């Protein structure tokens, strides 16, 4: 798969395929789409210390991956993710020192940071339970598809913690509004699928049997698009939170000028002139 760093570039050796044999989640890569499946269905796909770290490292590695242009994030067995495993994480946390606890909370936050920093769009396919850290992984994704039976809960307050976890107080208000986010983060109650759709958390709802195909179709359409430009869009969406309007306009002027130097921009023009569909290559 062609990558913006060409083969003759001396930096090319720093780039390569995404790690393909994770131990703590399932991974399939085809046609530029990586499908990450949280696969502990007997426990509703909870996270462990090891899976947190492996997911963090895998998403971080996407910044150098040559074979992944979009990601589908989903769960096995009719549920997305029930959050941190009560027995394997919550219990041990009650015995840790403050420095150990801070190392853990920084690690979980680093997973969200890695998801936001990777240039590939992430499509979360959410069925059933989506809670705690699972809700944060859904929130950190770029697009979310759900089912009518999906229930999303930022339930940190239910276990005696603040709703401010893994960036929730920054991300959630920007997506659904301050008042709605405050309600969910203070109460820890589950947001039903129809609420999530009406509030803008979900981009669309599908029947459970149709959800996997819908997520794959959306991810493939993104993978077939101008992936360098998609990465620029994701960067701008992230960076402009901290900009004034004038700063954002200037940043977008620079970003668009950069994209106008890509071969994909030229291909789009030539295809339009020839009344054909452009075939983007990401360079």
Break the fold down into its secondary structure elements and pairings.
Elements: E1 26-30, E2 33-38, H1 49-61, E3 70-75, H2 86-93, H3 98-117, E4 122-126, E5 129-131, H4 133-140, E6 143-146, E7 151-153, H5 168-176, H6 178-187, E8 190-192, H7 193-199, E9 204-205, H8 211-223, H9 227-239, H10 245-259, H11 263-273
Parallel strand pairs: 2-3, 3-4, 4-6, 5-7, 6-9
Antiparallel strand pairs: 1-2, 7-8
Helix pairs in contact: 1-3, 3-4, 5-6, 9-10
Structure commentary:
- With 283 residues, the protein is α/β, with parallel strands linked by helices.
- It is built from 11 helices and 9 strands.
- The protein has helices spanning 49-61, 86-93, 98-117, 133-140, 168-176, 178-187, 193-199, 211-223, 227-239, 245-259, 263-273; strands at residues 26-30, 33-38, 70-75, 122-126, 129-131, 143-146, 151-153, 190-192, 204-205.
- A 6-stranded mixed beta sheet has the order 1-2-3-4-6-9, with helices on both faces. Strands 5-7-8 form a 3-stranded mixed beta sheet.
- α5 packs across α6.
- The longest helix has 20 residues, at 98-117.
- The radius of gyration is 19 Å and the shape is globular.
- The model has no long low-confidence stretch (mean pLDDT 94).
């Amino acid at each position: 798969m062609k990558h913006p760093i060409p083969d003759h570039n001396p930096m090319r050796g720093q780039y390569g395929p995404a790690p393909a044999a994770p131990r703590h989640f399932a991974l399939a890569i085809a046609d530029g789409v990586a499908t990450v499946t949280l696969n502990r269905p007997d426990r509703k796909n909870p996270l462990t210390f090891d899976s947190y770290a492996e997911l963090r490292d895998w998403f971080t590695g996407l910044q150098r991956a040559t074979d992944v242009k979009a990601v589908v994030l989903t769960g096995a067995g009719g549920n997305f993710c029930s959050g941190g495993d009560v027995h394997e994480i919550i219990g041990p946390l009650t015995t840790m020192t403050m420095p150990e606890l801070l190392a853990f909370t920084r690690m979980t936050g680093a997973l969200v940071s890695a998801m936001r920093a990777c240039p590939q769009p992430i499509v979360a396919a959410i069925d059933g339970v989506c809670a705690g850290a699972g809700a944060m992984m859904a929130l950190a994704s770029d697009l979310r598809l759900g089912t009518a039976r999906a229930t999303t809960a930022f339930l940190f307050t239910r276990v005696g913690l603040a709703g401010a976890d893994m960036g929730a107080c920054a991300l959630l208000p920007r997506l659904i509004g301050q008042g709605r986010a405050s309600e969910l983060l203070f109460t820890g109650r589950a947001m039903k699928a129809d609420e999530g759709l009406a509030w803008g958390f979900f981009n669309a709802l599908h029947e459970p049997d149709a959800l996997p195909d819908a997520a794959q179709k959306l991810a493939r359409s993104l993978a077939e698009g101008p992936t360098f430009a998609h990465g620029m869009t994701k960067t701008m969406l992230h960076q402009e939170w901290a900009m004034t309007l004038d700063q954002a306009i200037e940043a977008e002027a620079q970003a668009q000028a950069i994209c106008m130097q890509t071969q994909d921009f030229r291909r789009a023009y030539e295809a339009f002139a020839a009344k054909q569909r452009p075939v983007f290559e990401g360079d």
